[in-house]
Amino acid sequence: QVQFVESGGGLVQPGGSLKLSCAVSGIIFRVYGMSWYRQAPGKQRELVASISSGENTNYADSVKGRFTISRDNAKKTVYLQMNSLKPEDTAVYYCRVNSVNYWGEGTLVTVSS
After folding, report:
1. Pairwise CA distance, residues 64 & 57, whole Å
2. Which pLDDT tens digit goes with each residue over 18-73?
3. Given this model, what pLDDT does residue 101 score?
4. What are the phi and psi torsion angles at 84 (to 5°)?
5. What stretches of the chain adopt beta strand conformation (E)?
6. What CA–CA distance (Å, rounded) separates 38 from 106?
7. I need a surface site. Which of 33, 66, 95, 112 has the fewest CB within 10 A?
């Protein structure tokens, strides 16, 4: 029984920051890579960032230099720090456990003045 608790979404002004959290139970968290995806209105779901079990990271070009993915294995939690937010970052953000393809429920991020 895999469970997700996602938090940190909300409304923020352009140029602002948010930090998303995703706590996962029901797996041996430390052995899995984790990813954040997002889906904007009228668009397909896209990969935003990923982090391996060894903490190697990769980012979509659109967020490189602005977003940082990290993990805390003791808390079984993956984070996405989002800085310099733009209106085009508005989307539902989803947490994913790699390889086994488990998904969280999603949290809404709205960037607007």
Report:
1. 11
2. 999 999 999 999 999 999 999 998 999 999 999 999 999 999 999 999 999 999 99
3. 87
4. 50, 50
5. 3-7, 10-12, 18-25, 34-39, 46-51, 57-59, 67-72, 77-82, 91-97, 102-103, 107-111
6. 8
7. 112
